[in-house]
Amino acid sequence: MAIFDRAALNPGVAPREVFAWAMYDFANSGFTTVVLTAVFNAYFVGVVAGNAPWATLAWTAALALSSLLVIVTVPGIGAYADAHARKKRLLLFSTIGCVLGTAALGLAQPGTVAWALVAIVVANYFFSIGDSLIAAFLPELARPHALGKVSGWGWSFGYFGGMLALGLSLAYVLSAKAAGRPAAEFVPVTMWITAGIYALAAVPVFALLRERAQPQLAVGGSTPQGVASGAGMASDVGSGQPGGVVQALTRLRRSWRDSARFADLRRLLWCGACYQAGIAVVIALAAVYAEQVMQFTQTQTMALIFVVNIASVIGAFSFGYAQDRLGHKRALAVTLLGWIAMVLVAGLGTTLALFWLAAVLAGLCMGSSQSCGRAMVGALTPASRLAEFFGLWTLAGRVAAIVGPLTYGLVTWLTVGNHRLAILVTGLFFVLGLLLLARIDIGRGQAAAQAAAA
After folding, report:
1. CATH topology for 10-209+250-453?
2. pTM (predicted TM-score)
3. 167: closest CA among 352, 39, 20?
4. Are 119 and 104 in contact (CB under 8 A)?
5. Most CB atoms closer than 10 Å: which of 52, 147, 242, 360?
6. SS3 content of the chain, % helix, strand, coil (to 5)
7. Residue 265 confidence (pLDDT) above 50
8. Is the per-residue pLDDT at 428 higher than 90?
9. Which residue has the higher pLDDT, 114 or 379?
């Protein structure tokens, strides 16, 4: 574990714990790479739904529904995790949910539209919950001056997991195609490969990572202001009852109201919602853009995703170190400028060389900007409310996951398939994020978080 610098870790944190924490990024990256970006989205549209006119809309609507469920529930889940010091237990539940949901996608066959849609809603929901909970461990592991570095370790390691899942899936797909098997036979196996890697790679998290948080319950069983009670949370999560939804929304409103005490954190949430909307477009629609505009084949598209992942590894790992030297705000500004450059190259470039350059820029910026944002949230959040406010960060990402791709889709629909204009419009999300970032004062935000913790 020599790769993990002990000087970057809090007292009592063993390097093996950071390795275990980073392994969760390794575990869940295959889901986004194989299920959302490279394989199952096209399989759903072309095979499960039979290229019906409503197929793409049904797919994006299912993803939007899962994001809405996250928006409603994640602040309450985060508050419950903080109040009872149960991030790790809830992370286990969310991991099982995503693994089972991904495996269920393997049962999708031509015509089983309802099954596939329910499975993707379940899998994507639990993926998002787990992503929020694992991020909340970061400030417990890393010293304040090294949040960017340690966050970069996780993000960069995670992309190797995505490439492993994609590589094994691609190898199986190529062999199945050579044997003359149809997609309905080989795509389900890629879902089981992805689910298996997720389950196995997540084991070190639950074996090695410690839950350092202490329950935040006050004397007499009451909870601090803004923290959910265990009984209330139990009735909220998964209840499906109108009262549970109302209570969850009330808790969401309370968490958002309380975040106003931390003005710079609030600004970061708005900033993150903007630039993550642009990132969501790249994740969900890069393959579509490559095929529709650049006339890529499926093999070329998968190679493109490999290139993006390799560049993301480099960006997340190297920029994590640079972030701690440059400062969180300046580092994020650099990545947003990189995203703007990527959009201009992709939208205005007409040669394959320029498009591959745009892909490399996207990879470098993706790993670094997501790692940087996570570290900034950790720096601006009070220690007693990590899971709750990281839940708000996840909420911002879920809103972005709805708004970004929907905007892209509307532009292409209104312009009769002008994908170049759609990607250029996407650049406005990064510009707006950069403008909002300019109003954030990191020193002031950290002082507010420390005062609240004290």
Report:
1. Growth Hormone; Chain: A; (1.20.1250)
2. 0.73
3. 39
4. yes
5. 147
6. 80, 0, 20
7. yes
8. yes
9. 114
